[in-house]
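Repro:
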Amino acid sequence: MAANPDLQAVEFLLVDPNGVMRGKWAPADSLKKAFQEGVNFPMSIHGLDIWGREVAETGLHIETGDKDGYFRAVPGTLSRVPWANRPTAQVLLQGFTPEGEPLRFDCRNALSRITKALARRDFYPVVAFELEFYLLEPGTDWDDGMPAPVGATSGPDRQRMYGLDDLAEYGALFDDIRSATEAQNLPIDTIIKEAAPGQFEVNLKHRCDPLRAADDVIMLRRIVFGCARKHSLQATFMAKPFIEYAGNGMHVHASMLDGEGNNVFAGEAGEKNLGGVIAEVIRTMPQGLLLFINSWNGFRRIQPGSYAPTRAVWAENNRSVALRIPASTEENRRIEHRIAGADANPYIVLCAILQAMMDGLEKLETPPPPITGNAYENTSAQQLPDDMDEALQLTQSGQFCDRALGPELAKIYKDLKRAEILAFWAEITPLERTTYL
């Protein structure tokens, strides 16, 4: 506050299990309370569906009195909001019970639990995210009210993957995005033109801090939304906004350091450690699919030939698989988890990946053989569900979700996804009406 005496407001931000950012605006002088005591929010905010409606099955709402918890500011996440209309700060919050204990169904607390469990074993994850998104033109109508991706109206074949002209055309927007990430201490790396009109990718640098890496994703999505709005555009991280174009993925790169700072996938034991991790990540992939693809729409992205994986397989230097080992030096050897949609909850995604990695390093089982060539044509490997209900059934059939998220968050997450499925089942589509009327 001393360094920013002009501040008038603060935006308190928290992330619910669906990966939706919620919160409230407050006077700037309330920041001190947020760090020392916490800001009051109903704990039931973690029991809302994707539309922000109460889901009674979670047991968090009126039947318990809809109690408040204390949501404290996360150190290191306080920054200015460059696109705000008045001098404004923002800070991320983390949930605690009225008794001061970490709220066990807060997704950030769930990831903190796994990070601490790894540290007790002298393991320290290094992770980085890649996020794809579309820039849209408000006021256009491309498909049933969906705005057109920028450039698409110039011709539907304007994919221009890795095109520099498209980056230059929106250079002022990307300059603002980069400036905002610098102001908010987000370690942004490359910006890429992706495989469809108006689709781009922003990569974040590796962090040896999974919590901050997940925070980076949440804040980056907010930056892209805010900067796009400033330039009279709209951004979407929706997993599959257009049937005819590529979906938006969120790829996760992950390695593991030992207590001396060495990559456990390098050196004499490196191959065995990597093999153990691959074996467990592949084995738990079907049960964990709903943690990576957390929206009804996200399952539309799982299509053959789309660079979104359809089978629980792995390979080295192969982008058709679910788990890729990128080309790298031995010291930088890592896994690339390619399943999650760009709208997924990054804390929950990391909970699932790191739980499997931790178990894999303990079991050290032999992985299945790697795939060669096009993984979409390999019919012998296990098919991943392309349906949210089937994915939920797989999640409910095993214990992996409970282990990765903890039983409290796991129950709420499954309740929320069931409610989401029922809501879509209750909707009759225009195609059905035009077909059967």
